[in-house]
Structures are given as C-alpha cells and as structure tokens.
Amino acid sequence: MGKAKSYKLDLVGVLGHPVAENPTVVMMEAAFRELRLPFSYLAIEVLPEGLGDAIRGVRAMGFKGVNLTIPHKVEVMRHLDEVTEKASLIGAVNTVYRVGDRLVGENTDGAGFLKSLQDDGGVDPRGGSFIVLGAGGASRAICVELSLAGAARIAIVNRDEGRGRAEYIAWEPGLRLPEGFGVLVNATSVGLYPDPGKPDIDYGSVRSGMTVCDVIPNPPRSAFLREAESRGASCLDGLGMLVNQGTIGFELWTGEKAPSAAMRAALEREFRAE
Ligand code: NDP
Questions:
Q1: What is the mean pLDDT of residues 128-145?
Q2: What is the rounded distance in angstroms from the CA atom of residue 250 to the CA atom of residue 235?
C-alpha cells in the first residue's frame, strides 16, 4: 500500500499594516517551489489593536513562524515567549520562529546586511569605519550588528538628534561627508518605490574606494547608488540584505538550506515587472 497523501501545508507569513505591497511573499514562495516544500507564505493584514489576537492565532494554528513588518516590530515583543539577545539589543523583532510550543523573536535585518557586506562586498567589518544615514529600525539593526562584528567607528546622520545615538552628525541639506569613513549606508526610507528621490547629501564627498550600501530593495539600482557609482564607489543594493534576512527566517522555519539565488531572481523579476 502507498503512503497516505497529505494535503496539509505548513504555514508561515508576514503580519503588517499595510502589507499588500510587501514583496517577501514572492521571494518565499519561490524558495518553497524551488525545494518542493509543502509550505505557504501568507501576507496578512493585521491592525495594531489585533496584534495580540493574531499572535495567539499563529500559536493556535501551528504556524511555523512569521515575519513582522510596520507597525508591529516593537510591539510584538510582549506577545512572545522569548526574544533573542540580539533582537532585544536592537529593540525590535522581524522574525518569529517556533521551538516546540514556544514562540521566539529574532531580528535578521542587521545580519542580512552584514552578510551582504561580507560576501558580496568583500568588506571585513572588524576595525572598519561606518557612516549610516537614518536612525530608524533598519539603522538600529545594522548598527547593532556592526558593533557586535567589531566595527571601530559608527557615525549616525539623522535630522533629529533624539533618534541618533553613538556618534551623531546633524543632517544639514547637502551634507558634506566627513573624511575617514570606509563605508556609507543609506538606512533611511528615501528612494523606496515609487519615490524616485535620494538622500540629500553632497555626492561630491563620496570618495572612490568607499563601499556604499542601500537598504532600499526596490528599485535595486536606486538613485543613491547610481550617484555613488558615478563617483567610483563600490555599491551594494538592498536586495542582497532582503534576500539574506529572508534566508535566515527560511532556515529557522524549514530546517533546510535556503535557495538564495532563486529567491533573488524571483524578486528581480518582480521589481522589473513594476
Ligand atoms: P523607520 O521609519 O524606522 O526609519 C526611517 C528613517 O529614515 C528615519 O531615521 C527617518 O528620519 C529617515 N528619513 C525618512 N525620510 C527622510 C528624509 N527625507 N531625509 C532624511 N531622513 C529621512 O523605517 P525603517 O528603518 O524600518 O525602514 C527604512 C527603510 O529600510 C525602508 O525603506 C525599508 O524598506 C528598508 N528596509 C530594508 C530592508 C532590507 O532587507 N533591504 C529591511 C528593513 C528595512 P527621522 O528620524 O528624522 O524621521
């Protein structure tokens, strides 16, 4: 007798508001297809007042895990059984996974960035000097990860000092970058599709030999990176970070090695189609 057929899918997904334009579903579904895994990734609209119930639902319905996006990354922490040390340092969770009946919160954004910096950019963060534009969630995740990896100097440029920490540089329009930094990171939301803009800095102060990174995944070749490239900098797009943070979640949920090339190709197809 043959094995009984199972129609059950393992569930994962992203909880957010708004969530309709979140591209993670495309990347994750491509990964499940590539490895023929019986998983489904759902984009679920959850209002702030429904977050507690949604997490109880995740638990009750046996989800293998979820991603969190705006506006739930901080608030979700009080609904979980455990938060990793890194996520609590960053103060936000973007990935939840299950250990038995326990829901554990992790933050994979900074690790995704770091992997792209090391593997795609060939940059060793140890002893390096970093200047980071923006002081929001993505910036915090990146700065914590860089500190843990041994960066010697991290300066944060922001419009509002309250949000800037470590070494703070006030953001004046057309900001001239100070000398002595090897890596420049745009961790603001400026330039995310459909915004064609770029951070308001003096691009003449980007030196050739710098590594310049953008967190913006869409468009991958942002106006910021095009400007930096024309000054002779080596550039890393936000797609690498997005794929890398996704591969960590994928591996926590499925126990399988993530097919990162298929994940990146699916996102590139998606963004070209826009
Ligand atoms: P937040 O809202 O937490 O932070 C946004 C930051 O951008 C703030 O510091 C804000 O400054 C700054 N900012 C916004 N507009 C301007 C402007 N016109 N000039 C200067 N600074 C500005 O967002 P997140 O940190 O969560 O996300 C930021 C971006 O990172 C998003 O576009 C998101 O798509 C991307 N991201 C990419 C990931 C990836 O895997 N590639 C992962 C996570 C995020 P102020 O404090 O002054 O308001």
A1: 95
A2: 26
